[in-house]
């Protein structure tokens, strides 16, 4: 793309988003916002390819204050944990919103330009970013009702008086899709009179109005600040809801996709390598749409994975996981999936819609209740509610099956975490999965929020003591997962874009064939999701003759003949060990 075509493409996108405004003026404003004085852009864009990531890439997801001791800055403690426990295990760290906030554990931001002083300061963020690929949250759909922007809006101060999306109570919003059951509009008093502002998520999170280009320009300035402070992966939080239009579902609108295309265009020209990740907790086709035509997100979350893996572990059958994986396309050139099972939120159930039959979803919910977990609901268009997410740590969620409790908890959990390591894409792990953290029921009662069950804050000295005991469940799980991630990083067959084929095996076995980009390494990844010993007959694995095949996880050589899988055992059988 030449300089002229870059400008033309940027102008086209701005004209589509803001058809009534002068795109030449807007183009100039965008360039000034994203590349201010003393910064410059590439002359040519990065070409789409498989070189933005390798098999060495894996991400740890954590809050900035997951580790506390009452004396040191939480970000100091996090740095200590990362250096002492995560070096060589992961090379990326997603620090969930580290800005000043008022609610939703950081997702109601009061100031995008500051680090929450209760966590630390920018120097602590940049220090982590100098040693790990740093991911930050761009909470671009909404801001805190108590933040600087909304206070200025209420006082009628320009330009903030037009920063927030307003609607009339008489407007028909029955089609609006959102993951909450609270009322959509909130009445507020402003210097310009009574207004009703749009609140997709909560009344403390007021939606921005991107019909006003000043909002987009300010977000671009914030992105530039974060890039300058070392951020290299930008997570576009709740981006699907960005553009609103009365009379529509107000999700996945064309203008939303155009804004993401604009951001991707800018990232393709940054001198820094910056990756865009879209957070769209929605069914498969809607989620995949955020790759665009290789011109939107570099990476999308593999949202169906958490509920499908959980169902496989609870049911002892990988049928629905296999059915889904067979229909998944490889990521487009220059794109990748982010594979995970657990996050700071619950286990999302919307992505399971159409993939798991309602009776199977019902069994999962019943089992989660038996474990002591919670279920959060969402509003349906036209009335009614449906399960939105399960609130439970993933470690606890794998504690029992549909048949009840057994002695395979750790083996089952380890299997569930090995699956995202084996799949095409980049694996990501919530810190509480790495630490086998139990449900924090006390936090739910104390905070009155279901999601608190999965957001435990560890006393760091207590955690260190547990990790120093090799027999503790926390030390055992951390070591086993760390060992597998280190082993994975050495295999070219696990490059995020390496070839993948879903194997046709016993439904208790979730099997994949991976092949490195240079075709030198094949890996047969096998996961027994049941509590039974399963034998894979001779001939069902295409082990090429005259080569030595070794199970990387057990170290044993695999001879011709049937392959036995113990309950919840995983195998990585390769011709290059």
Automatic annotation (TrEMBL):
One of its GO terms (molecular function) is sucrose phosphorylase activity. Substrate binds at residues 104, 142, 235-237, 344-345, 451. SUPFAM superfamilies: (Trans)glycosidases. It comes from the Bacteria. Keywords: Glycosyltransferase, Transferase. Residues 57-453 form the Glycosyl hydrolase family 13 catalytic domain. Its EC number is 2.4.1.7. GO terms for biological process: carbohydrate metabolic process. It holds the Pfam family Alpha-amylase. This is Sucrose phosphorylase. It comes from Salipiger profundus. The lineage of its organism: Bacteria, Pseudomonadati, Pseudomonadota, Alphaproteobacteria, Rhodobacterales.
